[in-house]
Amino acid sequence: MLQPSRIAVPIRRTIRDVSSAFSRPQSRTPHRTIIKRLSYRSFTSARCLYQPVPDPKPSEPTTTPGPQDEDIFIPKPLGQPIGFRDPPQPGQNTGTVKVKKDYKGMTLKERNLEKRKDLVERWGTNYFRDFINIRKYRSGKTFVANPRIFKKSAAMYFPNFHGNTLAAKNSDTTDVLRGKISVVNVYSSQWGEAQAQTFTGKKVNTALHQLLAQSPHVVQMVDINIEENIMKAWIIALFQWRLRASRPKEDWGKYFVVKKQVGEKIRETIGLLNGRVGYVYLVDQDCKIRWAGSGYAEGSEMDDMNRGVAKLISEATQSLG
Length: 321
Fold this sequence. Notes:
CATH superfamily: Glutaredoxin
Number of strands: 8
Radius of gyration: 36 Å
Order of helices and strands: HHHEEEHEHHEHHEHEEH
CATH topology: Glutaredoxin
CATH architecture: 3-Layer(aba) Sandwich
Structural class: alpha+beta
Strand order of the largest sheet: 1-8-7-4-5-6-2-3
Largest sheet: 8 strands, mixed
Oligomer: single chain
Helix content: 25-40%
Number of helices: 10
Strand content: 5-15%
């Protein structure tokens, strides 16, 4: 039979252990840390049992840039000729055949050196690689037109575009541009076309159209409508009769509709960085870009272009005479 004294001893020990657990001093550091953390939280409603530590000295407020600060890109006059180093050829950039460089027969080291060389050449000729934030400044203006035409010896080539004209299908711009001075309008929307018209429109630039009328055998105007959207291209094809009615029959072959996607290399090399903006190029008989403009005509840009056209006509007439 169990004795009362034997039962009482374990019970006393249990009570003493429990009471000592409540009375044993604990480290207050974790509790203070937690409470201090809670004091910084604005979303808590708990009271702080300790005096809150004052917040550190607030730092200077950082300014958040406003919408106007996004337009940090300022277009500048072209500092050097733009275009390709090699002359264009009919049949290029049709979008049907992708030319891939062949590295067969090369060692791994030779292949890497050749690829590096191609990369350096690509980035070295890309005048527009550092242009950013252009879509929100001056209605997308990419660059300011150069006041004087580029020298023939330094000028670079306008690429070949392949598309349909109002006169025929599967045509190349090189066949039309070669042999004549050309004022080339490039756009992809009505907004872009309206921008190009501020340079070359009949109502705003009567002097240019007088030059075109006086020397039709030397100078011409060419339109390149880049329409990569299939639906929009179909609508243009449906209303071609309106386009034909708005221009003489001899100019039908000078209006191109390009349906194939224009490669990034072409866009970056000649400055077609904004697909919705209009561009104007002055191209000589050898398909070299002698002058270029973008967006809406500003300042003396239109007059600068007219002087360039007159100078090229004079040079061409002298060489023919």
